[in-house]
Amino acid sequence: MTTYGTSLARLFQVEPENDWRNQAACRGMDPELFFSPDSFETKQGKDGREDIAKAACARCEVRAECLEYAIKAGERYGIWGGLTEQERRAVVRRRTAELRAGRAG
Ligand code: SF4
């Protein structure tokens, strides 16, 4: 198991009752689908792995909560809320730009 994969597994081990994580569509799935492996991964392998993970996120009832958790926690790796790390960084950049534009306007 990857270092990053264990962080998702740990997330589900410490959940309190009635937490949003109880509704996660990825519960019971292999965490390694959501994180790049420590070893080399081909583009085809990465795309296939991410497609499976994102398909779970697409049908997840707590996608918004998961995404906000990952952004607030500064999760640097893996797919959370249906977005890759690069896609989450883009969301943060867009929100920051919108905030600055709001302050300027
Ligand atoms: S949005 Fe994706 S990663 Fe987050 S809890 Fe749902 S299935 Fe899991």
What does this structure look like?
There is one protein chain. The protein is 55% helix and 0% strand. The chain has 105 residues and is mostly helical. The model has no long low-confidence stretch (mean pLDDT 88). It binds iron/sulfur cluster. Iron/sulfur cluster (SF4) binds next to helix 2 and helix 3. Iron/sulfur cluster (SF4) binds at residues 24-26, 34, 56-57, 60, 62-63, 66, 79-82.
What are the main properties of this structure?
105 residues, mainly alpha, 4 helices, binds iron/sulfur cluster
Give me the secondary-structure topology:
Elements lengths: L2 H11 L29 H16 L4 H11 L11 H20 L1
The protein binds iron/sulfur cluster.
| Helical run tally | 4
The percentage of residues in β strands lies in: under 5%
Write down the overall geometry: globular
Order of helices and strands: HHHH
Proportion of helical residues: 55-70%
Bound ions, cofactors and other small molecules, one mention each: iron/sulfur cluster
> Residue-averaged pLDDT, rounded?
88
How many domains? The number is 1
Distance between the termini: 49 Å
Radius of gyration: 15 Å
Q: Main beta sheet, described?
A: none
Derived structural class: mainly alpha
Low-confidence stretches: none
What's a concise summary of this model?
With 105 residues, the chain is mostly helical.
